[in-house]
Each structure stands twice: as structure tokens, then as C-alpha cells.
Specification:
Helices cover 32% and strands 6% of the residues. It has helices spanning 2-11, 16-21, 31-37, 55-65, 67-70, 105-115, 126-139; strands at 52-53, 149-150, 177-179, 182-185. The chain is globular, with a radius of gyration of 20 Å. α4 (55-65) crosses α7 (126-139) and α6 (105-115) packs across α7. The chain is mainly alpha-helical. The strands form 2 sheets. Strands 1-2 form a two-stranded antiparallel sheet. The chain has a two-stranded antiparallel ribbon with strand order 3-4. The protein is built from 7 helices and 4 strands, in the order αααβααααβββ. The longest helix is centred in the last third of the chain and has 14 residues, at 126-139.
């Protein structure tokens, strides 16, 4: 939350550290403005929206909004293949899909909500986004065809490649943020919290 506030302070001049350095420029963001930017979802499920969806509903939403690029059933489209590939990552021809590569179901929801559908990102409701996630997880054999996924269940779904990512020490340290040569946060190389499993 601290970094989010620091980034907002930089993005909206006049608040936080920027207000201290430039008191006559900009304004403090409203709570609604901060909330509109605070939409990230963490691997442990923090930030998930209320709602749920089923593979059956997801198939309908996918066919209407996603199949033109990703193909019917998430295979054979002009954009990334979304299904299959499990067991191929260590081969000469790895197939990276939701089923073979993606480490957390929660971040799949986050990605779809922010970036899809390609022609109108952010337009799916939370329920329809959960439904697309449920459909894609079902196509990859991760959940059953009658499984409803939502805020209360998504974090408990174990993706096949969850243990396939190894944190890099270089990226686990926060670098000091400087404004006008002053360190505003953090003052040292504090370690970022380890991903929740």
C-alpha cells in the first residue's frame, strides 16, 4: 500500500511527498480516485472483486468476446493459445498457456479484468470475468465443468506451474525512491514480502 500511495503521489502532483516539494501545484486525490487506481489482485487473492462465475457462463462470454482472437475453445486463433501445453516447458518447444505456465488463478482474473477483451479492456463485469476464468481453467483440466469460481475460492485453486517460478534476488529488493535528490522511500534495500502461497 505504501508503494501504491507513493506512485499515486508521483502521478498526481500535490499529494504525499510531491506536495511537500511542490506545495502550490496539484491537489490531494479523493478517496474515489485512489480506489479507482487500487485494483490490483495479489497471488493470495487480496484485491479480488466480489462475484463468481461458472465454466458454462464463461463459454458464452468467451465465444462473444475472446474466440475471435484466441480461437474456439482457446486454441487455433491469431493470438496466444490458452489451452494445453502441460509438460512442455522443459522441452525444446515449450507451449506457454494458462494450463502450462500461469502460476496463480487470482492473477489470471486480474489480467483478464484489466486487459481483455482486446478491443474493449476492462468492460467485462466481475461475474463475467470470473466466468471466463472458470471456463479457461476448466478447458485446462484444472477445475470441473460444474465448478463455480469467485473471490472466496480462486486463491485456493492450485495452478500446475505454481512452483515453476523462482524469485530472483535482484528483483526482490526495493530500490530507494528519490525526488529532487531526496530519498523518500524506502531508505534502505528493504526486501519485498515473499509471495504468499
Amino acid at each position: 500500500m505504501f508503494w501504491r500511495s507513493a506512485l499515486i503521489a508521483m502521478a498526481i502532483p500535490g499529494c504525499g511527498a510531491a506536495a511537500t516539494l511542490h506545495p502550490d501545484f496539484g491537489r490531494a486525490p479523493s478517496a474515489a480516485e485512489v480506489a479507482s487506481w487500487d485494483i490490483d489482485v495479489r497471488p493470495d487473492g487480496r484485491g479480488l472483486s466480489p462475484g463468481s462465475g461458472t465454466p458454462e457462463r464463461g463459454r458464452q462470454v468467451f465465444e462473444e468476446n475472446c474466440a475471435a482472437c484466441h480461437g474456439t475453445g482457446g486454441v487455433g486463433g491469431i493470438k496466444d493459445r490458452l489451452v494445453g501445453g502441460r509438460g512442455t516447458l522443459a522441452t525444446d518447444k515449450p507451449v506457454k498457456t494458462i494450463g502450462s505456465y500461469w502460476p496463480y488463478a487470482t492473477t489470471l482474473f486480474d489480467y483478464i479484468r484489466r486487459a481483455m477483451p482486446y478491443q474493449a479492456p476492462g468492460t467485462l463485469s466481475a461475474d463475467d470475468t470470473y466466468a471466463v476464468v472458470a471456463y479457461l481453467l476448466n478447458l485446462n483440466g484444472i477445475v470441473g465443468s460444474n465448478t463455480s469460481v469467485g473471490r472466496d475460492t480462486l486463491a485456493s485453486i492450485r495452478m500446475p506451474n505454481r512452483d515453476g517460478f523462482v524469485p530472483d534476488e535482484e528483483f526482490s529488493r526495493l530500490k530507494p525512491l528519490r525526488i529532487d535528490s531526496k530519498v523518500v522511500a524506502p531508505s534502505g534495500n528493504a526486501r519485498a514480502p515473499a509471495p504468499h502461497r
